[in-house]
Amino acid sequence: MEEVGKLPLKRVELSLTKFNEVAIPHHLDLLRQHKANIIKFGEHGDGARVRSEQTHARRVAAQLRALLHEMDALRRQVRPEDWDRFDALTQRSRDLTLRAIVDYLGVIERSCRALVGAGREMTRWRESSPVTIRRTGGGVGGVGGEGVGEVVCGSAVSTESVGVVAHAPQLQLQHDDQELQLKEREEVLRGWCELQAEVHALHESWRLMQDAAVLQRQQVTTASESIEVAADNVQEARRSLSIAERLGAGAAALCGACAGAACGGPLGLLAGAKAAAAAALAGAALGYAAVRAVRRLPPALPPAAPNHDKIL
């Protein structure tokens, strides 16, 4: 009996085909394109475009997550007996989605490690190349006069005694550029964190669908095993019934023989007595008839005496 409100799989096959062949492959292709652009712009050091591609990838991941929710809702509208077939039809889409999730998580991890490593290198460079201005008083070559000052930044050195202008504006520009690069890296790292959160949410949606499919597969496997066990039990019962029928037939024959012997013994004895009595009566009757017949015969003549005169 069909459940109320549940649809057969054939009623939702068109929508399922759109999910499997159009919507999900399209969004997975967009994710691949954004990933390739992120890698390319990152290699060129274009942080702004990397950030833009991260935003687009996050938006596509959210759309893909919504598609998985819609697919799961469609599955709940199908009859439970069709869930196994439904899961088989969506298996490829779920596998491709998982592959994209794992791929993005790998890219995020490698990119974040590279950003952290670059930030540490920049920090070490700034600490090893400080801008120091040292002024000392005293003579030059043992002669008193103006004080000598030095501005040190790496290999750049200026002295007031020779009238060389210090490179303070250049140092300020380098410092500002480093600050901009640091902020850009922070924005990119923040973008990776946001994208990672969205990919994790996508993975959670995928996991819910996968768990439902695995549970259904286990139930089907358990049901199949139960059916096989029941079939074996039925076969064994049939064999036992056949043996019982053969034993029952033999026992019935034996019981019939015993009952016949038990009932036929007295009946045979009675029949034998009756037959013996009848035979005795018949013999007596035959004897009586024979005696009467003998009595009715004429008496026999005495034999004649021999005539001796004729002989002489």
Protein described:
With 312 residues, the chain is mostly helical. The protein has a domain at 9-135 and 149-154 and 170-228: Methane Monooxygenase Hydroxylase, Chain G, domain 1, CATH 1.20.58. 78% of the residues lie in helices and 5% in strands. It has helices at residues 9-44, 47-76, 83-89, 91-128, 168-295, 308-311; strands at 132-136, 148-153, 156-159. Strands 1-2-3 form a three-stranded antiparallel sheet, with no helix packed on it. A hairpin with a 2-residue loop joins strand 2 (148-153) and strand 3. The radius of gyration is 59 Å and the shape is rod-shaped. Mean pLDDT is 72; it is low at 130-165 and 308-312. It holds the Pfam family STX17_N. This is STX17-like N-terminal domain-containing protein. Residues 10-107 form the STX17-like N-terminal domain. It comes from Parnassius mnemosyne. InterPro entries: STX17_N.
